[in-house]
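Retro notes (design track)

What went well: tokenization of the new backbones is finally stable.
What didn't: we kept losing track of which sequence belonged to which structure.
Fix going forward: every design gets posted as structure first, then sequence, in one message. First example under the new rule, 252 residues:
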């Protein structure tokens, strides 16, 4: 059972495709990065997704499409830049339960996936997307998946370009980050995150928040590690995106 129950979602989402999803969007180039773009160009609100360490997984792109198109009365432009520029982690490193796996993952997080490196690119990425889309976007939200959750924590402080932020199955949860978060934040944790760290993070959040633990789901269920052929995972993937939509509708 999930903890910290949420109100009924604002809308229904399209049927989730378990395997072989065909994305609705297109790829554009932003700051030299291949960037998935979806949603109507007339939408005034946008969401920047910082994906997990596996890149453009079909579960991630389907999630982007769900956020963009589900509610016809309140759609979003959604963008997923390739911040890792093709240098992705291997699924074989997860979980890092051997010395070799741990070393590979550690080197990855200190190299291509060093959080400050990506966090520093966010303001210019937002600026360039806003310019490229002709200035229609007036409000931005963020969504970080796993590794991307850490980036969201680092980019949601005073002066952030985001009006609302969300993290799903976040990596490297640190309650100290929460102390500086300056916008409404939604965190959907899995059974694999450190429960005490999640609890501490929630406690330190000063603004509006929704923190919920999907206690029967694995780290990554709303992104690249989500086995959507499993009906239970599929149902909770769908519910997670409903919670996110409700959150963005309230705060963007």
């Amino acid at each position: 059972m999930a903890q910290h129950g949420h109100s009924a979602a604002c809308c229904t989402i399209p049927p989730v495709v378990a395997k072989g999803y065909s994305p609705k969007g297109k790829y554009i180039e932003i700051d030299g990065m291949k960037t998935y773009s979806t949603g109507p160009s007339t939408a005034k609100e946008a969401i920047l997704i910082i994906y997990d360490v596996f890149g453009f997984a079909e579960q991630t792109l389907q999630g982007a499409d769900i956020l963009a198109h589900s509610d016809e009365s309140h759609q979003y432009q959604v963008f997923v830049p390739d911040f890792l520029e093709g240098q992705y982690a291997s699924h074989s490193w997860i979980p890092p339960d051997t010395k070799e796996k741990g070393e590979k993952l550690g080197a990855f997080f200190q190299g291509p996936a060093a959080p400050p490196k990506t966090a520093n690119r966010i303001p210019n990425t937002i600026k360039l997307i806003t310019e490229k889309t002709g200035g229609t976007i007036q409000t931005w939200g963020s969504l970080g998946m796993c590794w991307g959750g850490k980036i969201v924590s680092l980019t949601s402080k005073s002066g952030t370009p985001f009006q609302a932020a969300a993290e799903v199955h976040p990596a490297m949860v640190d309650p100290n980050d929460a102390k500086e978060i300056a916008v409404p934040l939604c965190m959907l944790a899995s059974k694999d995150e450190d429960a005490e760290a999640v609890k501490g993070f929630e406690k330190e959040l000063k603004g509006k928040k929704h923190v919920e633990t999907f206690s029967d789901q694995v780290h990554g269920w709303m992104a690249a590690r989500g086995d959507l052929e499993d009906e239970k995972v599929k149902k909770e993937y769908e519910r997670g995106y409903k919670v996110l939509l409700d959150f963005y509708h309230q705060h963007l």
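Added context from the reviewer: The longest strand covers residues 139-145.
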